[in-house]
Design a protein that fits this description.
Layout (H helix, E strand, L loop, with lengths): L1 E6 L3 H10 L2 H4 L10 E5 L10 E6 L4 E10 L3 E7 L9 E13 L2 E12 L2 H4 L2 H23 L3
Antiparallel strand pairs: 1-7, 2-3, 3-4, 4-5, 5-6, 6-7
Length: 151
């Protein structure tokens, strides 16, 4: 699953801003069955490979996120595991990647998820989940614009 959007920001500035955006501000709205993020518990200085934090979703579910890659200003990656709540039967773990590339006078930001299903049965639900995730990603990348660019 992948979704991209271009912003009138320099690549390094876009990378630096997105890496540290509070998740509860970026993912502050649910989309279909995907809930919003209520809070995160973890290091305040997010940005070092190996750091982990607990993501708390509205409705009470949680998941652990661990940074697996920080390659400024090109990309940062993470793994989500220890999923609880409604997504637990769907995903064993998820590898996420945010990438940043020059695009004209701005930056193309791409957010990707690779979902590893918990079972063959849950794998059959991934096409439907991917459609919901695309809507979630679209609204989240729109939110980046609201948070980073002056009105």
């Amino acid at each position: 699953m992948s979704y991209s959007r271009t912003y009138p920001l320099e690549v390094g500035a876009a990378f630096d801003a997105v890496l540290v955006l509070p998740l509860d501000r970026l993912f502050d709205r649910r989309y279909a069955a995907i809930p919003s993020i209520r809070a995160t518990d973890g290091p305040p200085d997010w940005g070092t490979v190996g750091q982990s934090r607990t993501i708390r979703l509205t409705g009470g579910a949680t998941m652990r996120e661990q940074l697996t890659l920080v390659d400024r200003p090109r990309a940062f990656g993470y793994r989500i595991d220890q999923v609880t709540g409604p997504m637990k039967p769907l995903a064993d773990h998820i590898d996420g990647l945010w990438s940043f590339a020059p695009a004209g006078t701005g930056t193309r930001v791409t957010w990707q998820w690779t979902v590893y299903p918990r079972s063959a049965v849950s794998g059959s639900a991934l096409p439907l989940f991917a459609k919901m995730w695309t809507g979630y990603a679209r609204q989240s990348l729109e939110r980046i614009e609201e948070l980073l660019l002056p009105a």
